[in-house]
Amino acid sequence: NHSSGSASLLQSFYRLSMHDQISGFSDDSLVSHYFNHICPLFSAVDSEDNPLRTLVTSSLMDYPTIYFTIQSMAIGHLTNFYPSMVSLGIVKRSQAWIFLQRDLRRQRMENSLEYPVFLSLLLLGLSSAWHSQTHLGLPYLSLARCLMKSLLTRSEVGEAGSSRPEAEFFYTAMMYWEMLATFVDPVPITPFLSRAIPELKIPYRQRSVLPHALTGVANEVYYALAEIGGILRRRRDSDKRTFPFQKHENSISNLDNEWARSLENFLHSIEIPTEEDILDYKNLTVPKADLIQTAQAYRLVGLLEIYNAFPAILKERLCKRSIFDSFVLDSRIYHSAYQNENDALLVEIAINILDLVKCIPVRSSSCRLHHLLLVAAGS
Questions:
Q1: Other Cβ atoms closer than 10 A to 336
Q2: What does the alpha-carbon distance between residue 235 and residue 310 come to, in Å, rounded to a whole number?
Q3: How far is CA 195 from CA 190, 201, 266, 310, 323, in A?
Q4: In degrees, to the nearest 5, what angle opens at C-alpha 315 toward C-alphas 309 and 318?
Q5: What is the model's pLDDT at position 238?
Q6: What is the pLDDT of residue 160?
Q7: Of 378, 332, 333, 334, nearest to 353 (Cα)?
Q8: DSSP secondary structure of 173-240
Q9: What CA–CA distances, in Å, run from 71 to 134, 186, 283, 295?
Q10: Phi and psi for 241 in degrees, rounded to 5?
Q11: Distance in angstroms (rounded) separating the CA atoms of residues 104 and 116
Q12: Fewest Cβ atoms closer than 10 Å to its Cβ: which of 29, 95, 135, 186?
C-alpha cells in the first residue's frame, strides 16, 4: 500500500518509531538505567551504601517525585546517544515538578521536613543542564535552600539530629551545590550585615572520615570556595554599577577584604585527611589517594581565586613566610614571561593544581570533581 509505505517512511523521518526500535525503554528500564549507569556517573564515590542508591530505593514507591526524577536523569544521559528522547526527558521532568509541588505543599501544611523531597530537589537541580545547557538548576537550589534553612533552625539539628546519616549527607551535598552555584548565580550570597566578620574555625572532625558520595573528602574546602565565589560576584557587580550610597558600598568592600583574609587563613589551616584517616568505602575504582589529591587541588583553587582577586593578601603571606614552605606548592617554577612576581606565583599555583590531578586516571570516579579545577586553573 503506497499510503502506508509513505506513512512508515514519514514516521521514520520524524523519529516517531525510534523510541521502540532503539531499546523499548520502559519506565522500569529507565529506573534500572539510573541505578546501573547514573549512580556511578553522578557519584565521586559510589558503593552499595551510596545514599543516591539507598535513599532512592527506600523512597521510590512512596514518592512519585523521586520516581519521575530518576527517569528524567536516565533519559538525560541517554539523549547523548538517542537525541530523539529529548522531548520525553522534558515530559518526565515536568511530571516530577508537578509532584514536587504537591510534596512541598504537604510539607508546609504539616510543618514537616522529608528527606526524599530534598533529594528530589538535589537531583533535579544538579541534572538540569543534562536537558538544556543553559539551565543551571538555580530555581531548585532556591527551594532546597529554604528547606535547608528550616532544617538548620529546627531543634533536631542539635546533637541527635546532626548525627543522623541522612542529615549529614544533605548538609555536605548542599554545601557542594552552593559552591558550584556561587560562581554562576547572578545573585551573590548576602554579605555580612554587621560591622565585623564572624570568627572562622575549623569544625571538629573525628579522625576517621567516610568519603561523601558526591563530594569526596574536601567538605571544609567547599565552604571556603562558596564564600570566595560570593565575594568575587559582589566585587564584579560593584564594578558594574554606580552605587548611590558609596559609604555603604565601601563598608561592604572592606568587610569582604577582611573576610577574604580569614578564608585564606582557613584554607591554610584545613587538614586534608590522610589515607589512614579515610575509612574503607567498598569502591576499588577510586583509590583514596585520588580523593586526597582532588581535595588538595580544590584548596589550591580557593587560594588561587583569593590571591588573584586580592594581591595584597598574597604579598602579606609572602612577607610572613614563604608560601612554598608549606603544602601549597611542591616545587618552584620560574616563568620568565612574567615580570610581576605575583603573576608568576599565580601561574605556579595553577600548574600545581594541574599536577595534582593529571596523573589521576579517567576511570577514577574522582574525576567527576575535576571540571571546576580545570576551569579555574586554565583561566
A1: 6
A2: 11
A3: 14, 19, 20, 20, 30
A4: 130
A5: 67
A6: 44
A7: 378
A8: HHHHHHHHHHTT-SSPPPPPSSSSPPPP-PPP--S-BPPBTTTBT-HHHHHHHHHHHHHHHHHHHHHH
A9: 21, 30, 25, 31
A10: -120, 160
A11: 11
A12: 186
For the entire predicted model, the pTM comes to 0.85
Q: C-alpha cell of 201?
A: 574555625
C-alpha 51/C-alpha 44 separation (Å) is 12
Query: Look-up: residue for cell 570533581?
Result: 369
315 class by beta-carbon count within 10 Å (0-12 exposed, 13-18 middle, 19+ buried): middle
Residue 285's pLDDT is: 83
Per-residue model confidence as pLDDT tens digits over 48-79: 999 999 999 999 999 999 999 999 999 999 99
Q: What is the pLDDT of residue 249?
A: 52
Q: Residue 21: is it exposed, middle or buried by C-beta count within 10 angstroms (0-12/13-18/19+)?
A: exposed
Pinpoint the alpha helices (H) of the chain: 2-13, 18-22, 27-33, 39-42, 51-59, 64-78, 86-110, 115-126, 138-153, 159-162, 165-182, 219-240, 246-269, 288-309, 311-320, 341-358, 371-378
As a whole number of angstroms, the distance between CA 331 and CA 329 comes to: 6
User: Which residue is associated with the grid cell 602579606?
Assistant: 316
Residue 291: what pLDDT?
96
Residue pair 82/25 in contact by the 8 Å Cβ criterion = no
Q: Report d(CA 340, CA 37) in Å as an integer.
A: 48
Of 202, 364, 223, 203, residue with least CA distance to 292: 364
